Amino acid sequence: MNNKLKSGEIVTSVTIILSALGLTYAPLPGLQQTLVIVSGTELQEPLQKLQEKFEQANPNIKLELKFQGSQEIVNNYIDEKNDFKPTILIPANGEILTELSNRLKAINNTEPFYDSPQPIAKTMLVGVAWPERGQVLFPNGRFQWQRIEQAMTANSWEKIGGAKDWGSFDFVTTDPTRSNSGQLTLNLWTQSKVGTNVNSASLNDPSVRSLFSLIKKSVYQPPRSTDTLLQEFISKGPNDADVSIVYESIALYRWQQSKINQTKSYQIYYIDPSIETTATAVIPRRDVNTATANAGGKFLDFLIQPQQQAILVEYGFRPVNNAVDIKAVPNSPWNQNIPGAEFKPNITTLQPSNSQINTEIQRLWERAN
């Protein structure tokens, strides 16, 4: 009798222990949290890969990924145009978040974020061109804004030394009212035009207003985001998309795709000076409780660990964690002999323009005709 009782007690004890272990490793419905992450499209594919890895390690946290142009992230959040409540915002650079913070503080005069913005990954603006066209446009092998403007003005490859059957010159950039890369492109082009840092005075220069009008007339229906632009650039190929400005990260990552879709892959050109931009994340206070914010912080800590930074390198980003060597990462695009790609390009890199300049660039673009 006693032996039977003891056996029963042991079985019951083991059941309780196993149940407890089950509770440890299986998510409880009442404790399940969902983080809605809104990011620029340049991070879409690496974040989708990291999502699976994070959810496996954190079964009680589910990630819901949304992707928009970086300027759209700000505008949609301010105007509450989303049909979801963002937990984490990750635009292409920290200046975008400064703009968001300033606009939110002007509305309710409270601190809009839980913590300081967290840098996630770095990249810079580069030019891409199909090889034969690049050789004609940049005969010395170096990117030149002036040559693109000349080609736009001529509107014909034949008039600038290209083949007659190449037809019109087609430059592609993103919409600066929706995408940060479009804003940075116009910033660098303006700087090249006036020979000085961009400010309110330089943006009011008649030559700059004429330049914006020329670009706007030449660029038909600019895409809302940079990755969308490059995918369209690749699918259209020469004669419909000849030269573009994109982030180095997606230029490196999409290069293999261009090699498959077209007879020749595109060439990367480093712009001098260029703008280094850092994808930066923040947890907003609006509609985000403390528990959800803590879960969001766990995800941001996850992103900057060496293993995740290495995955971002595979997608063409430069790490913010200095412990990661981009040449040592397996499948690093800097080890794939991509035409024009450089581990340490000999160029000057500038910080992104501030929110005031970005706003003025958007206004000038909207007024251009």
Automatic annotation (TrEMBL):
Supply one GO molecular-function term.
Answer: molybdate ion binding
Domain of life (superkingdom): Bacteria
* Pfam families to which the protein is assigned, alphabetical: SBP_bac_11
InterPro entries (alphabetical): ModA/WtpA
Name the Gene Ontology biological process terms.
molybdate ion transport
Q: Which positions, given as ranges, span the membrane?
A: none
In Swiss-Prot or TrEMBL terms, this protein is called: Substrate-binding domain-containing protein
* Species per Swiss-Prot/TrEMBL record: Umezakia ovalisporum FSS-62
